Amino acid sequence: MEQVITCINCPVGCRMTVHLSDAGEFLSVTGNTCPRGARYARQECTMPERMITAVIPVEGSACPLSVKTATPVPKKMIRDVMAALSSVRVSLPVSAGDVILHDVLGTGSDIIATRNLP
Ligand code: SF4
Question: 22-69, pLDDT tens digit by residue?
């Protein structure tokens, strides 16, 4: 079984063909220009992950706070993470890098602020 994917690790955007067993196990990849593409292909076909970015309201401020996951989280949890973020409220001041939500949904990834709001 083959799957064609595009590497998103850099602007080159190599199109890669991933070879999978009938059980869906990663076998090999072609079309990648560098080892990062091979790592991405294996990850994408076994347990895809994504960084999540969002904005959340700040009490007493008309300016929302931009946040992101500190590390990639399982792609299948994006909706759940966004739902968890929808109920988060923060108070001023906030500094870039502050942990807004620790270990979101047990993913092992914190939600962190990406900007200062004094
Ligand atoms: S395989 Fe390497 S060169 Fe190609 S898009 Fe991925 S990171 Fe960039």
Answer: 998 999 999 999 999 999 999 999 899 999 999 999 988 889 999 999
Q: Tell me how far apart the alpha carbons of residues 113 and 77 are, in angstroms, rounded to a whole number.
A: 20
The model's confidence at residue 7, banded by pLDDT at 50, 70 and 90, is very high
Q: What is the DSSP letter of 25?
A: -
73 C-alpha to center of ligand 1: Å? Answer: 21
Residue 89, pLDDT above cutoff 90: no
The C-alpha atoms of residue 39 and residue 48 are separated, in whole angstroms, by 11
The domain spans of the chain are 2-46, 53-113
Q: Which residue has the higher pLDDT, 16 or 91?
A: 16
Cα–Cα distance between 58 and 117 in angstroms, integer?
A: 9
The preferred substitution site among 4, 14, 39 for testing ligand 1, maximizing ligand atoms within 8 Å of CB, is 14
Q: Which residue minimizes the CA distance to atom 5 of ligand 1?
A: 13
Give me the CATH code for the 53-113 domain, please: 3.10.530.10
